[in-house]
Amino acid sequence: MLAHAWRDPTAYDGITRAGPVEMPAEIAVLVALDDAPALDRLAGATGRDPAWRP
Q1: Measured in whole angstroms, how far is the alpha carbon of residue 15 from the centre of its chain?
Q2: Which of 1, 19, 41, 44 is the most exposed place for a label (fewest CB within 10 A)?
Q3: Structure confidence by residue, pLDDT tens digits, 11-49
Q4: What is the C-alpha separation between 43 and 22, in angstroms, rounded?
Q5: Is the pTM of this model over 0.85?
Q6: In degrees rounded to 5, what are phi and psi of residue 7?
Q7: What whole-number distance in Å separates Cα of residue 17 and Cα of residue 6?
Q8: Is-contact 29 11, C-beta < 8 A?
Q9: Which residues, 6 or more positions from 26, have their beta carbon under 8 angstroms from its beta carbon?
C-alpha cells in the first residue's frame, strides 16, 4: 500500500524513478498524492485501505 510505504521517513530521501522519469523522492510523494482521488488520499492519510468495501 502506498500510504504504508511513505510512512518510513527514509522514503523521502534520495532519487526515485517512475518509468523513465527520475525525481527527488520528496517530489515523487507529491506527484503520487496529486494523482489520487481526494477520498483515497484521505483514507490513505488515516492509514485506511481505500480499496476496502463493506
Answers
A1: 15
A2: 19
A3: 889 998 878 889 998 888 777 777 677 777 777 778 878
A4: 27
A5: no
A6: -70, -25
A7: 15
A8: yes
A9: 12
- Radius of gyration for the chain, computed over Cα atoms and rounded to the nearest angstrom: 12
In one-letter notation, the amino acid at residue 34 is D
Label residue 1 by pLDDT band (50, 70, 90): low
Q: How many Cα atoms occupy the beta-carbon half-sphere of 51 within 13 Å?
A: 3
Cell numbers placing 38 = 481526494
Q: Torsions phi, psi of 26, nearest 5?
A: -70, -20
CA proximity to 5, closest of 32, 23, 24: 32
